[in-house]
Amino acid sequence: MQVRQKKGTRIICLLLLLMSALFFYHTYSFPKEMGPVSSEYGSAFFPRFLLIFIAVMAVILLIQSTLRKSRDQAEPRVSMDRVQLARCLGLWLLCLGFYLAWRRMGYLYASPLFMLATGWLMAARSVLLLAFLAGLGPLMYLVFEHLLKVGL
Amino acid sequence: MLGTEAALLEAFTQLIQPLNVGLLILGVGLGIVIGIIPGLGAPLGIAIALPFTFYLTPIQAFSLLLGIYSGAIYGGSISAIMLGIPGTPPAAATLMDGYPMMKAGRGGEALNLSLVGSVIGGLFSTVCLVLIAPILATFAMKFGPSEYFSLGVFGIMVVGKVAGDNAFKGFLMGALGIFLTTWGIDPVNANMRFTFGSVNLYAGISFIPLLVGLFAIPEMMFKCEDLARRALLKSALNLKLPGWKTFSGYKNVLLRSSIIGTIIGIIPAEGGAVGAFISYGEAKRISKHPERFGQGAPEGVLAPETANNATIGGALIPTLTLGVPGSAAAAILLGALMIHGYTPGPRLFSEAPELMYSIFIGLFIINIIMFFLGLGAIRSAAKIIKVPDRIIIPVVLLLCFLGSYSIKNSLFGVWVMLWAGLFGYLMRKFGFPIIPCVLGFVLGPMIEVNFRQALTISDGSWLVFINRPISLIIYGLILLTFLSQPLMDWIKKARQGRP
Hints:
The complex is a heterodimer. Chain A contains 5 helices and 2 strands. By secondary structure, chain A is mainly alpha-helical. Chain A has 2 domains: 78 residues; 66 residues, no CATH class. In chain B, a hairpin with a 6-residue loop joins β1 and β2. Chain B has one domain. Chain B is globular, with a radius of gyration of 22 Å. A two-stranded antiparallel sheet of chain B has the order 1-2. In chain B, 72% of the residues lie in helices and 1% in strands. Chain B is mostly helical. At the A-B interface, α1, α2, α3, α4 and α5 of A face α8, β2, α9, α17 and α18 of B.
């Protein structure tokens, strides 16, 4: 699977433009000014200034990526095979899964599962290694709970 | 607030406490290991360790973080020499002669040169830090809101310009970083902004989960893409160390590289890699035998290694005095200062002199510790390099989760880290640099508050930003940064056109 960097840049810029517009609209919901600064330069002014700047930069990048066609051939491609992509996204999804499991089951039970799954995804097949990884979660639990006094 | 002598004494007394010495040793040791492992580097090491410094005093925290910073910059050279894979970007220049030396059976000599060069470079830049930083801080005390605003803009613009291939991508990322700081309670009017009704967002987005997400998660995802990349060391090691006489012939290389590294370190965002390559180039240009470079020239190892460690003290000069970081790792240290309740900038010297002195003294001690730990690391490096990614990735991820959670004992930090990680991965994948975003997040509150204060003082007049001489100089520097490259190109063309 290959994606031209320019195509990726265009998608990101379009998303940023959309984000800027939505957040800009949201700034009108900020409460009325109460502090010492005049309402002209109040709470909404700086975020709006930044959002306009972000939008301008996104438009410049969009124009840049559209106009420079001659250079397009030399543009690096961002490539990954399907296994790499699956492994990479799988890793992030595993992290998301750990977050959800932590919320539901608690750290102590969720962490060995996460470590085992991550180790397996990384092609660790040795029972000893998987046991080591699974044991790290509870070990860190002891360190945080008893040494650092952080309730997990 | 303490006087100079009292602060110096306080800093020294705290630094020699057994726990602090232990943290200095731990920091350097961890840094070396992080540096040796390809793909991990000083910024990532500091980012992972940062949440754990909450349980330490500021002096203890900075002992650990600075130890990691120095150790990681040095450690990268070990894998560059032994494996031909730079453990960190600053070690890339070391590879060019270090690896050929290793293949020629002179690995021990290369490793020893790299260690001594790193220590000397580190010590030299620390002396420069001690001498220059207080003077610069005294000057910066004259700054008002307008100057602070222009300084913040300077940091973002310069870093945005040099951090990637496309300056607009850098500016966009810098603005995104600043924008994220506007979430939560408005620091001037206490109004709620972009909280979307969530109590978790009242205090804004936490720095550490964002930082860990932007650095560590994408790094692990990139590692995951390429699990089979690393060829493990198979050749036998010859770690026989050369005598001290070897170094006497390289005095000039050491001095020149130390100066280059320190100067490059001072320039915002020009990190160790730039210093190392420039120093390598200079060593080659001046050498009587430039043809030996690339084939295993000892100067080709000594010059970049001295320079990349010299960038540390250099990078800390603008970081501590102006609040403008000289490198990616320094940007994270800037965030660490804020997390520990300090406002980066010239007032640090008057508000926390004991911390400043502890950083100065600590850096000297760190370099001495690095020498002895480095000797040990050279012998055990082969084992560290062999730690496979299938162990590194789960362990680093677990630490990231724990670090992000422990900031506020809340899973919201983990949630922020996860999305910041995906965002950072996609942005890096498509060539958007992350450093300007982190810097924007660090400097955002300073820029906004001073921007609005300046407008309040001037009764809404925008002239306040340009009618102050220091601000004008800073804007001039921004302009110079942008015009320097086209100007150099023009001069080059004009010279070539001459008969």
